[in-house]
Design goal:
With 466 residues, the protein is of the alpha+beta class. It is built from eight helices and 15 strands. Helices cover 30% and strands 25% of the residues.
Length: 466
């Protein structure tokens, strides 16, 4: 599995209460970048969105950067944007649905804060751009597009929070409130489902020369549209998207539903046929191979329990479905690259087992993060990966193996001879011939009806003439 093979420094966790701030480093030990993970929910209809921060984790320094940490002013000019964005991508994989990377933070002395603002702004936009490239879904217009930069003063422990609108490249910093909330770690509802995938990706004679990763991504993009248009059953029921998820539950004395930890079972129904008001055009192409993704994947999402809407729950689990399938494929390709496994040639069939999902609890929270594990990897490797990526110490016995080994797999077959059997003229004639056959098949009913009509007319003429 691809990971940033570096040793993290001491753990930093944002305090739950303002009075419980950790001992901050001095200016000489300044570190610049880290990530804040959030979960989002709509509190009331037509209201602005709030962000709930549940975790802060530091970006590990490169080995050659350890020396420069002693000179924070020099480090400001030598920020490795690529290193930071790669860590953000790694962290993003470990977040279930409903959670995402919200922004970056920094701990310095007060006099250095202004010097780092431009660097933090640049990192916010770079991180968001990098993560969006790999997503199979897009943010909606209703979602808040602001991302956060957080500066914590190492001497006074005062917090300065600013936001940037990532949809506006020229966006300037806006001040934002940063408030601590009791009981936030247990204020989450979970949604779980198992999705059975059977994705067939045909490869044309031109696409067969592309990398397997590119062909797979193109096929997943088409599959993602099916998931986006699917019907989601929550506890066996189809509910209106604007309906309260907790509708019908007993309410407390304050008028809010009494919620402890609660999990919802979700099923996904995808449409097999387009409705009559949609028109589709068949495409005929010569194929020289195919990629197939098959198996059952476990999906999980979290939303805040303060007046959650059905649409929030559906959106969270939907995005986790798309993320986990895409992430598994990406991890597999990285593993093949790292281990320098050559692609098979000609008509040989390749079979690769996709990594299976493992969930890990966060201490003191009902939210669980995740990771991916190949069959030959030990549980200790998952533990070490959590320490590297999230600076979180976990117990091996707390690992929740969500899936059996070999649950999902990818197979691909390439027939290089198929693309060599045709000359350019034959390749042009073959689709034309196929198109003519298709047109005849499409109009066979009209031809038959016309023949019957002619026959009937002939019989009638013969009858009346007699």
């Amino acid at each position: 599995m691809n990971s940033l093979a570096v040793k993290l420094r001491e753990n930093l966790a944002l305090p739950k209460k303002k009075t419980h701030c950790p001992e901050a480093p001095t200016a000489a030990d300044c570190y610049v970048d880290g990530f804040i993970c959030r979960a989002c929910t709509f509190l009331v209809p037509c209201s602005s969105q709030k962000d709930y921060v549940i975790l802060a984790t530091r970006t590990p320094p490169k080995e050659e950067q350890n020396e420069s940490l002693k000179h924070p002013k020099d480090k400001m000019d030598n920020l490795d944007e690529e290193w930071v964005t790669e860590h953000a991508n790694q962290v993003s994989r470990m977040l279930p649905g409903g959670l995402l990377v919200l922004g970056v933070f920094i701990i310095t002395t007060l006099e250095l804060a202004n010097d780092f603002q431009n660097a933090l702004r640049r990192l916010v936009f770079a991180v968001e751009k990098s993560m969006n490239k790999k997503k199979l879904w897009s943010f909606t217009e209703e979602e808040v597009s602001e991302r956060v930069t957080l500066h914590i003063c190492s001497s006074t422990k005062k917090i300065f929070c600013r936001t940037y609108d990532i949809r506006d490249p020229k966006s300037s910093a806006r001040p934002a409130d940063w408030k601590y909330q009791n009981g936030l770690s247990t204020s989450w509802l979970s949604l779980e489902c198992t999705v059975h995938i059977n994705i067939h990706i045909p490869l044309s004679t031109t696409a067969v020369s592309y990398a397997l990763e590119k062909n797979t991504k193109n096929g997943l993009t088409r599959w993602a549209k099916q998931i986006e248009n699917g019907v989601f059953l929550i506890n066996g029921q189809v509910k209106d998207e604007d309906c309260d998820l907790l509708q019908g539950q007993k309410k407390s004395s304050r008028g809010n539903p009494q919620v402890t930890y609660q999990s919802f079972d979700v099923r996904v129904l995808t449409q097999l046929l387009l409705s009559s008001d949609h028109r589709s055009t068949a495409t005929v192409q010569i194929c020289s191979g195919s990629v197939n993704l098959k198996g059952a994947v476990k999906c999980r999402a979290y939303i805040h329990n303060s007046k959650p809407k059905v649409k929030d729950a559906v959106q969270a689990i939907k995005r986790d479905i798309l993320n986990t399938v895409a992430d598994r494929c990406e991890i597999l390709f990285e593993d093949l690259l790292l281990n320098e496994i050559p692609e098979k040639k000609d008509s040989e069939k390749e079979l690769h087992i996709l990594p299976h999902r493992v969930f890990v609890p966060i201490s003191g929270s009902t939210v669980m993060l995740c990771d991916y594990k190949f069959g030959d990897e030990a549980a200790e490797e998952i533990r070490d990966h959590f320490i590297e990526m999230l600076d979180q110490m976990i117990q091996i016995e707390d690992l929740e193996i969500a899936e059996e080994i070999n649950t999902a797999c990818m197979s691909s077959s390439m027939d290089s001879e198929a693309s060599l059997d045709f000359t350019d003229d034959e390749q042009a004639k073959q689709p034309l011939k196929t198109t003519i056959v298709l047109k005849i098949q499409q109009n066979i009913g009209v031809i038959t009806a016309f023949a019957v009509a002619v026959l009937a007319a002939g019989i009638s003429f013969h009858y009346f003439s007699d």
